[in-house]
Structure formats: structure tokens, C-alpha cells
């Protein structure tokens, strides 16, 4: 049984825990690992966001920089600078909110300047894959904004992941480091009821390390924050579905994704971040009934 939370987004709140919420992914990038380039123009990205909203997405997560394995990221040396990221995402946020004012928009960024501009343009959640560790200004910036925040766990940066050594107990490491990051966020002035946590499947985790994280997700409840999970189309799913060592392409991982998403909901996730909103929403309805 997962705990129930009221997630404070500033102008409104979301009740989490009574059913599993769905966060639809809107990548405004040419190079994301799964759907890079499919919705790269503002018009295509807005149309995709509105389609996901119509399919039942509770939140639309808009991102303008890929954090796929091997990507060059960071506050000072990112492949996508702040100006370019803003050029990509702001028209999509504005266009989506103009067409559907009630839609809840999240900005997927680790840059403080992008977070601030996105919230001022209508975003209500800042989703930081670095857990506020890549931009030293992020925590102080978000503390001054009226929005919710997702702190995700990652080990290292994407261009370092291939060289990371395995750890004896990844779940314990994730739990400890998420606790440290939430404590720093609270110390910076971010209220606890504005924070949700994401264990960061695939972000600095070796393939086999993701399975115990999925199985033991409920252990993160002791941190007393809602849990957001993104497993959609990720490589550990392809690894599990491999035949004769050949992993399916990302576009052929839907059923494996749905299995992982249902497992996450049953082990404690409050929000599922996904590419396939309609399929996920249907599957999660059954998971909520069974759970």
C-alpha cells in the first residue's frame, strides 16, 4: 500500500496515491534515445503534447535537451546551451497552455535559467534529472519559484556511465543519496510538500542494477515523498526482452515497458513517466484495481 500525498504545485495541488498518475513525455530534441527528432519543431511538439493530453496524460513533461547515455551535459559544457534549450521549449510550453490552459506542464531541465523561464511561461513542475547537482543555482532558483519539483537520482553524467563500477547495493545507495539531495533542497528553502523523488532508472545504473530497484521501490517510501518513475523503452527492458542476445529496438519495447510500469505502480510509484500514454493509462487502471 503506497502512502497518499498532496503535491503542492503552487497555484494548485495534485492528490497522489489513490490512483497512479501518468506523465507524458514530450521531447523537443533531435537526439533523444527513443524518439529524437519526431517532435522537434514547436508545431509538432505542441501537437504531440495535445495528443497526449487528450489520451489522458495528467502531466506533460517537456524537455529540450537529451540526457541519453553518452550525452555531454552540465552547467558549463553542455552540448545544448541555455539559449538553445529555451528556444526549443518555451514555444511548446506557451502553445500547449494556450490550447489547453488546464494542462499541467512540467519542464525537464537541470538548468536554473531554463527552469525559471519555463515556470514564468506556464510550467508548474521542474523535473531535474540531476537532483539539483549539475547547476549550483538550481536549488535557490526553485526555492523562489511557485512550482513543484522532481529530484531525480543519477550516478555521474551520461558520458561517464559506461565507466562506472558496480555497487554492492544500489537500492541503498539511491535511498541514501536521495535523502541527502532532499535535505539540501529543504535547506535551500524548498518546502517538503513541493518535492517528489525519482530513483532514476537507467541513469548511471548498469542493466542488472535496475531490476532490484524496481522490485524494492517501496523502500523509498521511508523518505516520505511521492515517487515518480520513468522506465519507458529503457535499455534494461530491452535487455530483459532479448532473444539470442539481440535486444529489440526502442520502438518494439511497448509490452515490456507496460510490464515494468505496472510493476512500478504495484511496488509504490505514484506517477509514471511514459512515451505511450494511452496504453500506460489503461494498464495502470488495472494495476490500481489489483493493488
Structural overview:
The chain is α/β, with parallel strands linked by helices. It has a single domain (15-290), classed as TIM Barrel (Alpha-Beta Barrel). Helix content is 36%, strand content 15%. It has an eight-stranded parallel β-sheet with strand order 8-7-6-5-4-3-10-9. It has a two-stranded antiparallel ribbon with strand order 1-2. Strand 7 (148-152), helix 5 (170-187) and strand 8 form a beta-alpha-beta unit. Helix 1 crosses helix 2. The longest helix is centred in the first third of the chain and has 18 residues, at 82-99. It is globular, with a radius of gyration of 17 Å. It starts with a strand and ends with a helix.
Primary descriptors:
single chain; TIM Barrel; two-stranded antiparallel sheet; eight-stranded parallel sheet; 291 residues; 36% helix
- The assigned structural class equals alpha/beta
By DSSP, the count of extended strands is: 10
The domain tally reads 1
Spell out the CATH superfamily. Dihydropteroate synthase-like
Q: End-to-end span in angstroms?
A: 7 Å
Radius of gyration (CA) equals 17 Å
Shape: globular
**Biggest sheet: strand arrangement:** 8-7-6-5-4-3-10-9
Please give the share of residues in helix.
25-40%
How do the helices and strands follow one another from N- to C-terminus? EEEHEHEHEHEHEHEHHEH
Largest sheet, in brief, is: 8 strands, parallel
Task: Give the second-level CATH assignment, the architecture.
Answer: Alpha-Beta Barrel
Instruction: Report the mean per-residue pLDDT as an integer.
Output: 92
Strand composition percent: 15-25%
Count of alpha/pi helices: 9
Low-confidence stretches: 32-37
- CATH class type: Alpha Beta
CATH topology: TIM Barrel
